[in-house]
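Structure tokens please, single chain.
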Amino acid sequence: MIELDRRLLLAGLSAGLVPQSALAAVAPPAIRLGPPHPFSFPSLVARAQKNATQPYKTPPQRAAELIKTVDFDAAQKIKFKPDHVLWPERPDPVSFFHLSRYSSDPVVLHTVDGGKAREVLYGADYFDYGATGLDQKMLSDLGFSGFRVMDGPGKPTDWLAFQGASYFRSSGQEAQYGASARGIAINTAGATAEEFPRFSEFWLESSGPVISIYALLDGPSITGAYKFDALKNASDNKGSVAMNVHCQLFFRADISRLGIAPLTSMYWYGENERRKAADWRPEIHDNDGLALWTGKGERIWRPLANPPQVMTNSFADINPKGFGLIQRDRDFANYQDDGAFYDKRPGIWVEPRGDWGAGAVQLVEIPTDDETHDNIVAYWRPDRDVHKGDSISLDYRLYWQNSEPAYPKSIAKVVATRLGRGGIPGQNPWPRDKHKFVVDFTGGPLMQMQQRYDVTPVVSASRGVVDNAYVVKVVGTDRWRALFDLKLEGNAPADLRLFLRLDNKTLSETWLYQYFP
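Here you go.
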């Protein structure tokens, strides 16, 4: 079972939004590079394929006992010196992360220019250790734990970071980190322990507005070669970050549950789970739902939940058009958090390229009682067995932005889900076996409609009885509200489905929900 400590394991990533130190004028390049060697993506693929025929080697630990002392507070105090960035004269300079207790495996970094790669040679003098009390002489041969792409020359903030296993993320349209992507997921919430392959080596290449990142994946069951082409603030994506991903995977062993294009996030509670609200803030989550665009063209919204036990739900599909973890609620008033700024957290959308065939988007929800754990995972699971000696090649695009790209204007979307006791307000006694569901929709054809009472909520439930279902327009807003009661016995979960219809026309996406009485 995954239970990653966001604040600690990804401490360096969060630090990207805090100034490293008072910035002076950018000095000439102070980074040290090794001798040039030929590099190409085909050669990286060949290396990954060869590695798959050899036993996995655990990465060597460097100054392990000393690195254990670099806890969250110490990691925040260690600052990369801004006059040591890679590519100081370009629009996308790169700085590097120090090793810590939570990211202790060093990675090898290279810069690529004209088909030649040069290793970025580590030096403890790249960092300002401030009041950590660490002896720089003891840190002379550590290596970096990852890197981040800065917002521009002399800027103290970043927009893209790779650190820890195969994790990476972007700050999206509103310069706020949230959910993470991963290179691969293996046996997430499965019968055996989850495996975390890691990017052990990177090659960085800057070409105009695009930064290309090549990565070598290595793990006990898998190897792989990745190419990421990342673009920030292009005019055609309205400030979002888009990334084309190509990967070629090779398998050292059989894998029972392979997760392609995995996304990892945090959900504690929202307006749909007020009973979980132990904190004073109204809502706490990086994303509030899983959005799906199926191969047949159906749009689906599944609000996230904090379940009583680990739950894995599968949404079977063939050649999906897209899926993602989205933060649709972007109203500060619903969070009241001026430190974490959950209202500004980006969504991450996966757009498959080519034929992905049959499989399922799987959603894993893990119970949590605070905001420091990544307890949500979503990924594509191919409908095929993966065996030792197999290989897979895949392409997809990732979007870090506020909403799903290219959402159709012909369909309304869900914007809120609320739960309460069933029956009629003021009814006495109220029916204890009924539960009320209230789902708000907006957009699409609903935007042009005046109040009317022939819009139909099409509701179904895996168990129990649905009654008192109707739809109204919320006075003074552009929202339409579907309400229904579910009469239910027992404590087993119930799966619910709802969409809006007028005559024979579908007006909205499909709302799916898993309710735990």
